[in-house]
Amino acid sequence: MTDELELLEQLKSETHKNQAFKALLTLYKERLYWHIRNIVKSHDDADDVLQNTFIKIFKNINGFKGDSKLYSWMYRIATNESITFINNKAKQLQITNEEVQQLAITNLASDVYFEGDEIQLKLQKAIATLPEKQQLVFNMKYFENIKYSDMSEILETSEGALKASYHLAVKKIESYLTKD
Is it the case that residue 69 has pLDDT exceeding 80? Predict the structure, then answer.
């Protein structure tokens, strides 16, 4: 994609870096926000993680080698920042990552930014019961409609493994949603 290469060139140029970064923010802010939000659940937490993600992108853009798409690299940073956020919160509260997820789901019902209904809440509860990798794959495929080839770059895993994870996640979610 020529636009991405152009943007990358400008991001690495000292004279155009700030302007190019504003363009990058405009292009990816919303998509990355929703990716992060699907992981951390809370709007406020997602905002914090998004800010940290863009700081990391800004500081490390010169280290981007172009081995993957720019957007895949940024998603990987957003994913890692989200996981780090959950790990730190778990450590801080002295609970497991799974308990942090359950707490986030419990707080969703009172989150003024959560626009889902009872079914959405139940789906979020089902997703929270999945192992971390299955959660990531399910969220990226179901909510963000990311292709397996792009997901493979972001999560650094084979497409076959991702398809298997998604299939398992769907089965577990279906089971959760159909139990009484």
Answer: yes
